Amino acid sequence: MPKQFRCHLFWCGHERDDPTKPSCAKRGSMDIGMKLKQAMRDRGLREEVAVTKSGCLGQCSVGPAMIVYPEGVWYSVPTFEDAMEILDSHLEKGEIVERLVIRD
Amino acid sequence: MPKQFRCHLFWCGHERDDPTKPSCAKRGSMDIGMKLKQAMRDRGLREEVAVTKSGCLGQCSVGPAMIVYPEGVWYSVPTFEDAMEILDSHLEKGEIVERLVIRD
């Protein structure tokens, strides 16, 4: 079996066709997600952690959305600085960033 | 927090730029993945299971690749029939399809 990552983060890069409707890509998720992946690599975490673009995660109204497995924690990540906080806390130390968790 | 799915399957829809190199999309993953998502919906599993396209999962040589969380089980899924076996067994019943698991 390939690598079992300690954490696997998926970030939504979906852009909805309807220009009047919100989507993660329209809110800057492509830039945030790609920079987050690079930051993860720069820290030498490739053996432990994965950061992967995904299709729609169904959280268009609160995006940019991310989900971290195996915990299944959903995040709303408006800025790259917020993404870096998830890298510092959740991906590096296993500590959930409560202030960014998507609530019902 | 949004829905916690019993299983969340990600299927790789990545196509590498180099035409001489293998990739999941070149091996038909788009068709398999989209049909699998529709089959999941047709069975009324949307509340329990998610099926989402992803970027590269790093398994280009054995694709089309899929990964199912929270278990973190990697699959090589050459045909739609194989994908349906994962739906029948893993996503519906929690039983891993050993013959399709990617080994080292």
Intertermini distance of chain A: 35 Å
* Low-pLDDT segments, ≥5 res of chain A: none
Strand numbers in spatial order across the main sheet of chain A: 2-1-3-4
The CATH superfamily of chain A bears the name Glutaredoxin
Organism (chains A, B): Terasakiella brassicae
Protein name (chains A, B): Ferredoxin
List the helices and strands and how they pair.
The structure is a homodimer of 104-residue chains.
Chain A: E1 7-12, H1 29-42, E2 49-54, E3 65-69, E4 73-76, H2 80-93
Helix pairs in contact in A: 1-2
Please provide a written account of the structure:
Two copies of one chain form a homodimer. The model of chain A has no long low-confidence stretch (mean pLDDT 95). A four-stranded mixed sheet of chain A has the order 2-1-3-4, with helices on one face. Helices cover 27% and strands 20% of the residues of chain A. In chain A, strand 3 and strand 4 form a beta hairpin. Chain A contains two helices and four strands. Chain A is α+β, with helices and mostly antiparallel strands. The termini of chain A are far apart. The first copy, chain A, has a single domain, classed as Glutaredoxin (3-Layer(aba) Sandwich), CATH 3.40.30.10. Chains A, B: InterPro entries: Thioredoxin-like_sf.
Quick summary:
2 copies of one chain form a homodimer. Chain A is an alpha+beta fold. Chain A has helices spanning 29-42, 80-93; strands at 7-12, 49-54, 65-69, 73-76.
Question: Descriptors for this entry?
Answer:
4-stranded mixed beta sheet, Ferredoxin (chains A, B), 104 residues, alpha+beta, homodimer, Glutaredoxin, 4 strands
